[in-house]
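Protocol step 4 of 6.
Sequence for Probable periplasmic serine endoprotease DegP-like (Lacibacterium aquatile) entered exactly as in the expression construct, tag removed. Do not edit the line below.
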Amino acid sequence: MTENISTISPAPLLVRLPRALAMAAVAAVLAVGPLAAPTPAFAASAPESFADMAQKLLPSVVNVYTTQTAKQPEQRGPAPDLQLPPGSPFEQFFKDFMNRQRNPNAPPRRQTSLGSGFIIDESGFIVTNNHVIDGADEISVRLHDETELKATLVGKDPRTDLALLKVETSRKLPAVPWGNSGDIRIGDWVLAIGNPFGLGGTVTAGILSARNRSMGGAYDDFLQTDASINRGNSGGPMFNMKGEVIGINSAILSPNGGSVGIGFAIASNLAKPVIEQIRNGGQVKRGWLGVRIQKLDEDVATGFGLDKARGALVSSVQENSPAAKAQIKQGDVILKFDGRDVPESDRLPRIVADTPIGKAVDATVWRNRKEITVKVTVGELKEDEVAAAADPNVPAVTGEVKSLGLTLAGLNAQSREKYGLDESAVGVLVTDAAQDSPAFEKGVRPGDLITEVGQESVKTPNDVSDKIKAARDGKKKSVLLTLSSRGETRFVAVRVD
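Step 5 output, structure tokens:
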């Protein structure tokens, strides 16, 4: 059975899951000396009951339900003539179905979506997931006391799957405070509350299983929990033991659509500033750098002379972008941005997005085997700008030249036409990659253009061969190749030992 991640809604979004998550074990503490020392308390013990906390928080969690009009499908050409045996029990069913399809005046169907939300302000502001209300014609909210109110959409942010609603009421509503998701530790208790399907509040408890999880989005920052989270709980809050919101329940890992103890919540430290921007201006503005980035593996890091795989590798720089104006170059590894470490590539988009637009910041980059600092003035990300993260389907690959089954050729008019290369392209073309070779297995294909070896330009197959031989003679384990393919640039650490 294939596992999947689904948003917790009646129409789940399915994506692939990274490999299984690791669990840590705590070693026992041994007493020493004539008298046993007290055992340190590694974590607070489980509360005797969550009842008091749940009773206080439940009124702040609401059911969100929406309706939208589903258009009738266009009839394209004559309806098919279904031949069914006389007296078939399906005969009338298919006649009724086809009559509805042929009737252009049939009333539009109404579709309903259900989810959860929570009140953040007594005046009626409610947070939920964007996928709960996306495409809705009408949005309604059912409070804990069964009061039903019409809601208006203040704004939404599909990039983080967040939305803010507003209901009008003469009474003060029970609101819950934001907490600091950065303070919660793996193993701490959490409480998840939802109001699924209008059944009323549902409370589940568990521990925080992991932090900083990503599902492939540029701005993902998910908390993982083993607290049971089920469909209809999307948009509901996850609380710490102080009763503060430290996450918004959004997705589950499940083989069948039900909870199996792996749920994901958007971290409050990501959600809170997004919601504040929506509340203040109806839209979210993010910082923009203008680079496409690639993840470093250990081989590529070694090729760049880094002590370990860290930072974000710049695979290309957009023209007239803040990065281009700051002289950030292809092949730079961004290690720090505005004083914040970049431990891995997917952190950079989040760090840049949180940086105030127009702010001049220092960026520490690794270039030519040493650190340098450049000054960058952060721009504003527009909806039509290229996303900051590189295409995740572009692999970080490794390969050799001859011993890995690669055949090289110089560029000419015929090869440029065959592989769609423009006249300005310079480099050495991979014309063949043996299917049983390590290079092929790692993604090197005919049509890839080798533009640099060891960060030095190459124009002929001999240039490549000479630089590979020099690397071997110099007792190097690997040499770095710069490849261009389909308009994208990537870096490949080629083992030469």
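Step 6, annotate. Confidence is low (pLDDT under 50) at residues 9-43, 75-79, 384-400.
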